[in-house]
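Consider what follows.

. . .
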Amino acid sequence: MTLFEKIIARQIPADIVHEDEHCIAFRDISPQAPVHLLVVPKKPIPRIGEAMIEDQELLGHLMLAVGEIAKNESLAESGFRVVMNHGSHGGETVPHLHIHILGGRPLEWPPG
């Protein structure tokens, strides 16, 4: 069971900012920006490159949830970054697909 599955099951506490039948969003415990949230599907998909065609609707739901959560966190007007990591070179640390929402300050480009 991954860390995120334990958060979904309420075995590990988290500062939850959004939850619906398909996903949960919470504040990152090691924030890289003033606002750093993780949006996690309740269905365990190891990483974006392993998503299947049957996950298409869920992936769309996650992206719409990102927009709603960003608005609720007052990030929509100033802007925010959406990040997904895949594999060790991509910065993945938990093998459960998740989307980072980063905002609250200007973000540099290129990242990393």
Summary: The two ends are 29 Å apart (CA to CA).
